[in-house]
């Protein structure tokens, strides 16, 4: 009489699509460290007012501002995109929708993690602005106005944090490739686009925008790395349940 073979656990990524979707394409911790180091270097150059960087900022800002003054129609479009479509409050609304969806799915801990990451980003941005105290560009014929200090750009940071968190959630939940590719396209266009509008409208220097991107990237990558490390522990709530689903 033949014996019945015992069930074996699936270990291949091909047998477990949910597990495959949760594996990041880039290591989160090295990305966080790289972004943090680059942000620190840029911050140092801004504080020291390094000549080549100041010259580059002034050249880019001046060129775009001359276009903004002579092209009012294009300038109005950039103001709509900057002040409404890619405004930080719009980005916060996107994350709020994601948090509400996670709560509805019963993933309250993950929802809290996303909300905390977003709030930390806002706090870091305001703290760095206050410490650096960099002046915004000043023009005799401004086409837009902005409050607070310049470095780093809050618009650039908010767009990157919101976009990166959404992409992280889509990959983590195993969303379909079409959804992920669509989201990536929208996020890239939004992050690059809002950076362009802030410099074009004359309210930020180019290095302010790059600083916002780097600080936002360091934050989200670091948050994903810490979450991944905690979620892999047996003591993390839900670990045993997820293991049961995959057995």
TrEMBL record:
Transmembrane helix found in the keyword field: yes
UniProt xrefs under InterPro entries: PAP2/HPO, PAP2/HPO_sf
Annotated region described as Disordered, given as residue ranges: 1-21
Key word Acyltransferase present: no
Transmembrane intervals: 28-50, 84-103, 110-128, 148-169, 181-201, 213-232
Domain Phosphatidic acid phosphatase type 2/haloperoxidase: start-end pairs: 110-224
Keywords associated with the record: Membrane, Transmembrane, Transmembrane helix
Pfam families reported for this sequence: PAP2
Biased segments, Polar residues type: 1-11
SMART domains: acidPPc
Gene3D superfamilies to which the protein is assigned, alphabetical: Phosphatidic acid phosphatase type 2/haloperoxidase (1.20.144.10)
Superkingdom to which the source organism belongs: Bacteria
Protein name: Phosphatidic acid phosphatase type 2/haloperoxidase domain-containing protein
């Amino acid at each position: 009489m033949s014996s019945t073979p015992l069930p074996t656990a699936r270990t291949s990524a091909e047998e477990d699509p949910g597990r495959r979707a949760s594996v990041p394409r880039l290591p989160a911790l090295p990305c966080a460290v790289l972004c943090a180091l680059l942000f620190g270097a840029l911050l140092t150059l801004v504080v020291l007012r390094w000549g080549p960087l100041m010259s580059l900022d002034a050249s880019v800002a001046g060129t775009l501002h001359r276009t903004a003054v002579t092209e009012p129609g294009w300038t109005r479009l950039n103001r709509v995109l900057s002040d409404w479509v890619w405004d930080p409050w719009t980005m916060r609304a996107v994350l709020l929708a994601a948090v509400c969806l996670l709560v509805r799915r019963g993933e309250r801990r993950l929802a809290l993690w996303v909300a905390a990451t977003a709030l930390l980003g806002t706090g870091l941005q305001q703290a760095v602005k206050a410490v650096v105290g960099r002046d915004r560009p000043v023009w005799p014929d401004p086409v837009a106005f902005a409050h607070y200090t310049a470095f780093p750009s809050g618009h650039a940071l908010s767009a990157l944090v919101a976009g990166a968190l959404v992409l992280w959630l889509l990959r983590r939940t195993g969303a379909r490739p079409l959804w992920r590719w669509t989201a990536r396209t929208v996020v890239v266009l939004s992050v690059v686009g809002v950076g362009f509008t802030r410099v074009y409208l004359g309210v930020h220097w180019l290095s302010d925008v790059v600083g916002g991107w780097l600080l936002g990237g360091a934050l989200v990558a670091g948050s994903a790395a810490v979450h991944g490390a905690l979620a892999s522990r047996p003591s993390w709530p839900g670990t045993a349940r997820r293991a049961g689903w995959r057995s």
